[in-house]
Each structure stands twice: as C-alpha cells, then as structure tokens.
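Aim 2 progress. For TATA box-binding protein-associated factor RNA polymerase I subunit B, the working sequence is reproduced below.
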Amino acid sequence: MDLEEAEEFKERCSQCAAVSWGLTDEGKYYCTSCHNVTERSQEVINTDLIPNTQIKALNRGLKKKNNSEKGWDWYVCEGFQNILCQQAEALKNLGIGPELKNDVLHNFWKRYLQKSKQAYCKNPVYTTGRKPTVLEDNLSHSDWASEPELLSDVSCPPFLESGAESQSDIHTRKPFPISKASQSETSVCSGSLDGVEYSQRKEKGVVKMTVPQTLAFCYLSLLWQREAITLSDLLRFVEEDHIPYINAFQHFPEQMKLYGRDRGIFGIESWPDYEDIYKKTIEVGTFLDLPRFPDITEDCYLHPNILCMKYLMEVNLPDEMHNLTCHVVKMTGMGEVDFLTFDPIAKMAKTVKYDVQAVAIIVVVLKLLFLLDDNLEWSLSNLAEKHNEKNKKDKPWFDFRKWYQIMKKAFDEKKQKWEEARAKYLWKSEKPLYYSFVDKPVAYKKREMVVNLQKQFSTLVDSTATAGKKSPSSFQFNWTEEDTDRTCFHGHSLQGVLKEKGQSLLTKNSLYWLSTQKFCRCYCTHVTTYEESNYSLSYQFILNLFSFLLRIKTSLLHEEVSLVEKKLFEKKYSVTKKKSRSKKARRH
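Predicted structure tokens for this construct:
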C-alpha cells in the first residue's frame, strides 16, 4: 500500500469525512482513519509495463470487507418483523398452535404495515432515495423464518375479519429483493437505512413501532385466538427468557448490522410493565381498526370463573370458595360476554384485565368471609383450630392463620429467588452494539473483557454449575395432598365461616370495609372506609401475594378490587331499594 500515490485522491470519506487515503494491493482507495474501502481505484495509464498486476490481484483475492461489514440494506420495520417472528416461534414452542403465527399475527403485522404506509399500499413511504423494485416475474410466498424482507402488494385485499388469508393472496405477494448495501445508500449513523429518521419521527395518528409494541401484537394475537395465556403469563415468560424480548436483536441474521441510532430503537434495558403493555394493546388494536374479537364465553380460559379456580388452586385456598367467586361474578355482571369481549372499534375501546379482575374477585370474597381487619380472621381461626383438634376424622375447617403462615413462608422463599435471579440477570448482549464502525473493535474488546471477568468471578464466588433455564409453567406455586411438608387446603371446608339460613348459606361476618373513599357510603350503613396507611397486615399480605403472582403493582390490584366492590354494592343497593319500594307499594 502506498500513501504517496494516493495523495491525488482528494474526496472526503463517507464514513468519517477525513481526507487521508491509501491504496490496497488491488489498487483501491481506503481511508487510513476508519479503514473504509471505496469502489474507486487508481487509474493505470499503461498496463503493458506491468503485465503481472492483474494476476497478483487475482492470486491474493479481492477484499470484500466493505460488503461483509455493511451487510444488507434493511429498514427498521424489518427488524421488528424479525423480533415478531422470534416471539411467534417461542409461543409455538410453548404449545400455541401454528395458526397464531401464520394467520393471526401475520395479518395483524400486515395490517400495521398497510396502515402506517410502509408496505401493502400503492405508494409506500420510504425514508431513503432507494425504492426496491418489485419482481414481477419472481413471485414467492413470504416465509417469516426466511431472510427479513419488506413486503409490498399493490393489489392487497382488505383485512380479513376471520384472521385467515385467502389462497389467492398468498400467491400474489411481490417481495422486494434484499440487495447488498452500497456505500452511498447505507446510513452513516445507523445500520438500518432509516434508523436516524425513524428515531426522530413523530407522525400524528400513527402508532410508532417499538420493542414493547411487539408484546402488544403477541397479546392481541393470543386474545384473538382465546389462548390459555393471560397478559401476566406472557410477561412472566418474557422475564424467564422463554420469549425473546431483552436483546432480541442479537438473533438477527449476521447480515443485518446494528449500530448508531439502532441502539435506541432495539436496545431494551428494562422489564416490560403490565400497565404499559396493556395500554399499548388497546392503542394498537384501535390503530389497526380491528373488528370485534371472538366472544369470551364461560368455557373460555379467560372467563373469570375459570381464572378464579386457577388462582384459588395456586394460592392454596379451599375449592369451596369457587362457588362464592362465581356468585360475585354473576352479581356484578363481570361474566357477561359483552363485558369481557374486546371491541377495538367501539366508542370507548377497552379490554378487560382478565387476570387482575379474577384475582380482585378472590380478594373481595376473602374480605366478605374474614373481613381482613387483623381481628375477625384470627378469631375465626381459633374456632377452626379447636374444631379440627376435636374432630380429626371429619373434613377439616379452613384455618386462616395456618394458611397465612404456610403461604407467607412459600411466598418469601419464592420472592427471594426471584429477586436473586433479577440481580444476576446479564443485561449486556453477546452481540455488542456500537455507535459506528470506528467503535466496533473497542466494543468487542470491552465485551470480551467483561465475559472473561464474569467467568473469573463466577469461579471464585460459586464453583457449582449454574442452573439452566427452568421449563415454563402456568403455575408458580404447586400444592398436592401428598405433600407431607406443607398442608394443602384445597379440600378444606368453609363451614366455620358460613351459616345456614333456610336453603342458602350466609357468611357469619356481617361487616365489610371498602378499599377506597371514592364510594358513596349511603349504599350500606355497616360499610367502613379505611385509609391506605391503615390497611390490616393480612390484607396487605394478600395484596402483595397476588401482585407478585401477576408481576403487577399493588396499586393496580387495589384499584381493581375497588371496581369489583363498587359493582357489587351498587347491585346490592339497587336490589335493596327495589325491595323497599315493593313493600311500600304493598302497604298502599
């Protein structure tokens, strides 16, 4: 390489804007600052004097460093498409049917590209000068597992309400070819072609795609299919690394280079939040103008009657409580199809927090039975303990104190393991992100040093091998009758807290306290309202237990409990008012 011969080349480098050039063995100019190789080569006036020049170049081989480092031309939406593909495959591995990926999620994503005018429309919006050419003579079906491609179909039919694609639509897709990146087209500040503009884009009325939005797409697809996965389950599977989310970009194909502004778009350094994904789900569903979702009926997993049974089993409460939760669901109208079914095009589009609602119903039933004021529940526990000692052969009464002690121990152990796992989580990806190619060697060197240090410290701290990723499960707590170390309360009786009146059962507790002050006290004279700072220890424990189970904030659960109470007492007050009116009518 001869620096003197390259002095005549005065153009600035497209990568670092420096004017410092050298010559490769093949006669091409390269930047001595960032080692960027151009397509320009030194002009040779008379090749007859150096007949072996071409032979030497062929023997040494042409360097393709530029192409291998730049990779494909790709857009930001293709990166999100790749993440959605990974998440759909993960859900498939968890037991979800393939139609969720091939039909539902694909159609939702296709609809998003169309609504945001990125594809499947006559005039797609491209942020760079290059517009890929549609291959008219090479029609092929788009495979999500194949190389990322941005699809476009000028004759795309409207979104199918059934969630399935027609066969004609499959054969009329016109995929854009993935071309190799050229120096003039690739963005200097990002690996993607539109990374810089995408990070600055703020278009009114258009939902901007982010990594958390991918979970909203997945949950919408699960909700459309009425699968047996709640939003809290989905986020927990993300937390347990069963569904790609943190550092999902490291599974991109090698040719999709990420650097610069791509860091802020695809780099995630926090766990997904329940309320945030819930709001994004409604936002995406409304933006896509999706039709009314399939009805949530009584035989559906997301119905409160089924979810209440699931959570009663998980927190080791008696099976008899399920009759009471079903009664509360019926009284409040929370089990009706119209209330449970998501309708994005409705005037006030909202979906039910199915898991939070079910847990809130259980909390209300516990308050109806035991009051949870740090007094009545312990008195009833004393009665249950005395009865169980005298009648050891009979069906045992439910002892709230014993349940509290067992559950608190199990909860503390589970929470400690969860906190330790979070503290040990490695946020840095195996595939480091860097701002530019100049920083690439430094980023990889730092990553190598971090990995070596982690190995050394792990050897010093703990010589035992780290446990592998645990298998996914819908239950976090498991209770069986055969477990001799811990008591299983599923078969215990509520006879100690219920009393018979004719053919019906009533609670021995006639008092109740409300979880909020935003409630009219005229509904019931024996209702008391407590400040949050005065909540009983037993009530606080139950809130913490269920909040940990769903990975939500206690304030969210407390708010849902208040909504259930409001509906319940409004119903009770209206029934009482009707009875008093009928009595007055009879007198007259």
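The CA atoms of residues 141 and 170 lie 6 Å apart. This observation will guide construct design in the next reporting period.
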